[in-house]
Structure formats: structure tokens, C-alpha cells
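Summarise what follows for lecture notes:
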Amino acid sequence: MTSRPFNTPSTWVMRFFRQARALRYFRLAVAGGVLVILGVVFAAIDLAPSLSHMRIAILSGPQDGRDYALASRLRKQAQQRHGQVANVATDGDAENLQRAIDTKGRDALFALVLDGLDYPSPDQLELAARLPKRATIYILGPDADKLHFIRDLNGLRIGIGPHGGGTALLVREIFKSRHLAEVKPTLSEQGFGEQVELLKAGALDLGFFIMDEDAPLIERAVRDGLQIVDFDNAEVLTRQLPALKITTLYAGHFDAMKLLPPVNRKLYQVDRLVLCHRGSSRSATTALLVLVNAAFKGFIDYNRITPNDTGLLESPALARFVHDNGPSLLDQYAPRLVDFMPPANLLHYLVVVSLLLNATVVWHRFRLWRIDAKRLKLEERTLRLFGEHLTMAEIERLQPLPGQFSAADLAVFDDIIEQTAALRRWVRKLSLSMVAPMGAEMLYRYQESLIHHKLAVLHAFRDRLRALGGTEADLEQAGV
């Protein structure tokens, strides 16, 4: 009489080790991938804070201008910290603004411009920094002492600096203000040196110069006889243009012995800003802020107390830098990491990963409980069939007797075997699942070994039952 083939223990052991070996290689591959990812993360961490990751460009201005000199100063400081800053000479603020917009955030590009301008595409620009050293607005002329009120500018020939420069752009914005709407001067654009010569020759009545307070060009012009305008009602413009601030140039500032200027003068000042595209990376912006903070004392406090009236959004990197009184630990030690995962998102990520890991552990324990419950249920059905007083070890040695089981009992016996085989397949599938925590697969292996042993006992007993005699058709009809 033929019996149903069943895997021998040696065959099952060989299959187990083959699958275990394949699973081990798979887990080794996963572990290797995790190590590679961790290596990349740790490679992005600077063990000693520096600016070695810094690769930025600053759109400054003409090579003989103050902004180009400032960018050169920042470039030298960056080199001392192993960073790289490219000082890009331009024709002025107009070009700086346009190139900052056109970059679309692809490059770490920053633009030096004056505050108070009409910024094109404000939705694409961000305020990256406000420099605490303001630029001074000098209004010079051969007969400037005769001018006392802003209305006196009506009909005058006024030079406003080179075309596309910050001075020309800001002066045009000043004359667009409500208080100067009826003032109709004749504006012309030329280089500052040429503008001084035209003033001396009488070809211009006034000239605007936005420079450092101690600019040599202004000092020479004053020594050559040009006078500085001092409006009695200078404060009215600051209400319309918040970017303008009033300061005092004291008598004798340029020459205390000759008393140049001879009396105190009220002058306007305006901030210099650093703008960037909204797509600029946090690491590049923070690195620039580190440089500027080192170059200007009081940079953080100045940006904290000065309201943002530019109409542009403040860079998130600037807000965080000011709030933390400098770069955060992540900005110092893992600047590249915060570019694609900001610290707030990183914290959320860690929390989510922790919750997921805890959830997998709970789910793993729940599945083990379900497996054990099903195994015990099948074992109880088996003992009810053979007798509650027997164990699986005793059933393994039990010799069946003719007529011991009815047709219904044989059907139950066959169902127990099928359910046990299905349970073993399910356990094997769960043990190979990626959801199973590493090391927990041995718990599934233990359950699988118990189920396999029970299945072997049941198959062996059925083989002995068939060996009692009778035709195979009779046994099949009986349900064996």
C-alpha cells in the first residue's frame, strides 16, 4: 500500500538552512545599505566646526566701489576658515537684483543692495542679512548752503550716480515719494568722479553720493569747496521712506582745524542688505551669516531690533541665526544635513521612526500570540481526538487499532493535518518578513519547529493507520 510522501527530517533541515542562508545574505545586504547611509551622514558631519562646506558667490558692484571691497573682505575671512567666496563684480544694484532672481536658487548666490529700493519679483527674493554699517547719503553742490527745504530741489540739475547703481535707483524712489511729487528736478546719471567735476564746473547744481561716511571722494570734494546740503525739514522723508535714517555729521568731521564742514549737518543714511533667492540653501546662507557676524560687531542685535520694511520675506536661516544668537549645533557640525532635512523635520523624523519601530515590536508580539493561540487550538483538537490524557510524544509512539476511529473522526484528523500545514506555511512567511525585528526571527523558528514536530507525528500516525490493512479505496472512502 502506498503512503503519502513526507519530507524526512534531514530534508527539512537542509531546506531550513538554505532558506536561512538566503535570509542571512539578504539581511547582510540590508545592514550594508544602512552602514553606507550612516557613512554618508557621518561624512557630512564636521568634527571641527569650519566653513569647508561653503561655496558661495557674492554679487557686489564695481571693482572700485565699497560693496566690492566689502565682499573682498568677506572672501579673505572665508579663506581663513577653509571656505570659498567668489566676489563677482557687477555694474551695480540693478544687475545684482536681476541676477539673484534669475538664478532660481540653483546657485548659492547673494546680492549686496541698498535698502528702500523697488525690488523686482519680491516673491522670489529673501532678506538674508542686514549689515549694521549704514551707507551715508551725501548731497553736494557749489551753493548747497542756500538750500533749506526739500521743495528747493525743484527745477535743479541733479546728478544721481552711475546708471544701474544703488544711488540712482534709490534717488528715483525718493523723488517718487508723496512729499516730492511736485518737485521736478532734471536727473542725470554719470560716474561719481565725473559727477564731482560737473559740480565744480557748474554743469550740475547738486549731486547725490551714497558712500561710507569717511569716503575719500567726499572729503576731497568738500576740501575743493563743494558744500553739503542740510535740509531743515529732512525728517519728513523718513516718514514716507522708512529705509532712510537721520544722522548728524559734526562740524570739523573732515578737517578739525579748518572746520570742514563748518557746522553740523543732518544727513540721511540707509542700510545695506544681502538678498538671495528663496531657493537658496540653509547651509550657504548660515555660512554667510557666520562671516558677516564676524565682520560686524552687533550684527545679531542690529537684525533683531531693526524692523523689516523691505517688503521681502526674511530668510528662515536669518531668523534662526538671530534667535539662537549664532549658528545652531546642526548648522556647525552637520550643515549639509539640514539642507535636505531641517532640524524640526529631523526631530519629527526621529519621532516617527521611533513610533514605527515600537509599532513593529507590538505587531510582532501580537502575531506571535496569534501563532501560539492557533497552535494550541489545533493541539487541543488533537488531544480531544486521541484523548486528553495523552501527549504528543505518546501519540508519536501510539499504535492504532482497527475501528479505533470513525469516519467523522478521520475527517477531523485530516482537517487537523491540513490546518497544521497551513499554520507552518504562515509562520515561515512571517519569519521571512521585513517587518519582523532583527533577531526576532528565532522566535518564529521556535514556533515553526513545534508545528513541524506535531505535523510529523500526525503524518507518521496516519501512515501507521493505513498499514492496518484494507484497500486504499476503502481508506479514502473512510476519510483516511
